[in-house]
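Is this the right way to post structure tokens for a design question? Let me know if I should format differently. Anyway, here goes:
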């Protein structure tokens, strides 16, 4: 089979394909064998119908050839795509130009291909990720969580501050409904917890015991209520003095220095892992932003959206749910879900186009040796022979897709070494910190001190 590409306008190509008589003969034999297993002819068992009898039953050789062409065309087209290293992104328009009745089969396939996008600024990317550095104030906050378990409460007459415990009478009246108001006496509220309604924590600051706070707030489900709070008493938490004696008596450590050092080490390990885990996604999104959304082909977005919708349906099925149940649980309409999936699809396509553009811009095209090496690795992971995988890629027209994936792996490595990583304040992060190996202690282990051994909040409003 011979295939010749001709490049057209608007990211389209035309493949002119000729299938020789030998290949057509094989296609005829395969189709005849398949149909012999399907048709019922008196006097013959299925699968045992002679080819000449089958041809006569179908109405002649032209009928068998027509069926063979119809059945084999997807394979012919896929092999033509692979042989010409084309990268189609849509369905082809196929026109048979010769050979429908006899001789070599010739056809033309016109199809949209993936555009080659040019990017600029890939070497100047500044990518924001969580800081791997631990501030002294963060360690102090963690230590204070231990101290809070042994805190005492003291009445204060000063204006309310964040963290204070306020005793109040709470009255909640729904607006435009007949629901009876909610009355709660001596309700104890920790300022900053946000457990009453949005906005309380900002408005209550600066008030004193004996004053009243009245505001409207959202109850959820589109229901608005008026909240009236009679502030009766304000208490502050008094933390115990941080001494070696207190540490030894109330924690697993022997001294303040040991406690601080262990917490610092564990927090640093956790933050480094968080920064490392966020690197790839953050740099890919930043690279994708270099591709204008109006350059993204709709056919790619549609395909990616459909694939995401299919994956969602598969995951829901595994959880014994359907799409209707999912929409109810997440409180969204089908249009809202589709809009979200489409937004994610656009981002994914922009990243893909940008990665391919980076390969061209930085000359990261993989060598044949690199492709063969990755093919061997992939075949081993799939538990198949490399030659089998190679032939499957050709027959399915996915040769270019595999090459692209190998190239994007190289591009990803280039990105991680060449972009500038900064923390949320814009301060450049030491790249050596991001290379630190945290394998000796897993993420779960690294958070043992700050998450597992940290006592839960035991504030007085827990039961309120």
């Amino acid at each position: 089979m011979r295939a010749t590409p001709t490049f057209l306008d608007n990211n389209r190509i035309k493949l002119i394909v000729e299938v020789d008589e030998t290949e057509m003969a094989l296609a005829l034999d395969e189709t005849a064998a398949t149909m012999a297993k399907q048709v019922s002819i008196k006097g013959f068992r299925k699968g045992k119908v002679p080819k000449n009898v089958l041809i006569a039953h179908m109405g002649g050789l032209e009928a068998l050839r027509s069926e063979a062409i119809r059945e084999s065309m997807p394979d012919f087209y896929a092999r033509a795509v692979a042989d010409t290293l084309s990268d189609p992104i849509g369905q082809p328009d196929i026109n048979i130009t010769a050979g429908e009745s006899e001789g070599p089969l010739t056809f033309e396939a016109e199809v949209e291909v993936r555009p080659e996008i040019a990017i600029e600024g890939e070497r100047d990317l500044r990518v924001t990720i969580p800081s791997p550095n631990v501030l002294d104030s963060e360690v102090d906050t963690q230590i204070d969580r231990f101290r809070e378990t042994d805190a005492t409460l003291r009445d204060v007459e000063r204006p309310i501050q964040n963290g204070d415990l306020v005793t109040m009478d709470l009255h909640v009246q729904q607006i435009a409904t007949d629901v009876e108001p909610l009355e709660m006496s001596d309700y104890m509220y920790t300022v900053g917890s946000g457990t009453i309604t949005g906005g309380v924590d900002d408005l209550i600051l600066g008030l004193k015991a004996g004053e009243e706070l009245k505001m409207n707030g959202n109850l959820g489900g589109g229901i608005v209520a008026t909240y009236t709070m009679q502030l009766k008493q304000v208490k502050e938490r008094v933390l115990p003095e941080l001494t070696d004696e207190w540490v030894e008596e109330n924690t697993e450590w022997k001294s303040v220095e040991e406690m601080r050092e262990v917490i610092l080490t564990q927090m640093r390990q956790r933050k480094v892992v968080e920064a490392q885990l966020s690197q790839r996604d953050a740099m890919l999104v930043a690279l994708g932003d270099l591709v204008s959304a109006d350059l993204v082909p709709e056919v790619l977005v549609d395909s990616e959206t459909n694939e995401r919708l299919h994956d969602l349906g598969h995951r829901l099925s595994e959880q014994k749910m359907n799409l209707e149940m999912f929409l109810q649980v997440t409180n969204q309409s089908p249009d809202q879900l589709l809009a979200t999936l489409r937004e994610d699809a656009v981002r994914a396509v922009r990243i893909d186009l940008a990665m391919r553009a980076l390969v061209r811009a930085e000359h990261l095209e993989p060598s044949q040796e690199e492709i063969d090496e990755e093919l061997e690795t992939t075949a081993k992971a799939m538990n198949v022979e490399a030659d089998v995988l190679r032939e499957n890629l050709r027959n399915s027209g996915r040769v270019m897709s595999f090459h692209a994936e190998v190239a994007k792996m190289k591009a990803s490595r280039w990105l991680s070494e060449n972009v500038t990583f900064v923390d949320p304040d814009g301060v450049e992060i030491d790249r050596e910190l991001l290379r630190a190996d945290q394998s000796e202690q897993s993420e779960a282990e690294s958070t043992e001190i700050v998450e597992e051994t940290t006592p839960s909040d035991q504030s007085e409003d827990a039961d309120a």
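Format looks fine. Someone answered above. Worth noting: The first strand starts at residue 2 and ends at 7. The domain at 152-238 is CATH 3.10.50.30 (Chitinase A; domain 3).
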